[in-house]
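Re: the 228-residue chain
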Amino acid sequence: MSKQKRTAALATAAALAGSAVLMAAPAAMAEVVDVNYACKTPIGDKSAVSPIDIKGVKSGSGYKITMSWQKGVSSSPVELGKGAMNPSATIRLGGADSGTLAVTGPANQEAIPANTPIKINDLTGTYTPKKTGKVTFTAGVLTIKALGTTTTCTPTNSPGPSLTLDVTAAGGGGTDSGSQGGSGSGAELPQTGPEDSALALGTLGGTVLLAGAAGALWLTRRSRTARR
C-alpha cells in the first residue's frame, strides 16, 4: 500500500471511530413521570394524578419544549364551551441551569362537559441554554383560567424530571461543576495546508481523531527517514 493510501486509510478509520463515539452519546433522556396535583379551585380543593411527558426539539439556538398531560386534571361544575378554558404552566429547570420555563397552549377546541376531568392541551415554550451541561425539566405549577376564574394545581409528590437535555450555551457559557457539555456541536481543526481538510471535532470523538492524525504523521516521517 502506498504512503498516500495508508495515510488516507488511517484518517478515515479515525473519523469513523470518532463518529461512532459521538453517536453513542445520548443528547436527551425522557421519562413519563406521574405527578400528584393539588388544585385550588373556585369550588374547593381537588386532587388528581396525571403522567407528564416533556420533550425537547432543537430549534435554532434553543429548544422547543413540549409538555403533555396523559390524563385530565381538575373539573368544572358547569360545561366549558369551546375556547372557554386557557391553560398555562411552569417547568422547573435543574442541573446546569435553574429557574422556571413558562409554557402555554391553545384554549380548548371542544366543549368540556360538566364534572368531567379537564384534558389539558399540549403546552409549549422555547428554552435557550444559558450554561453548558445537563439540564433537567420537571413539571411545575399548572394554571387553568376559565369563565373568569383561576384554578392553580401544584405538584405535591416532588416528581422527578421528565426530561434531561445535554445542552451547549450560545457564546460559550460556563459549565457548572460536575456537568458535561455535548449538544453535538464542535470546533474545527485549523487548515495547515492545501491538501488538509477541516475535520469537525466532537467533544467525545476529538481524542480519537487526534490520535489518528498523530499516527498518520508518524508514518509519513518514518517513510521519509527510510528513503534517506
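The domain at 35-167 is CATH 2.60.40 (Immunoglobulin-like).
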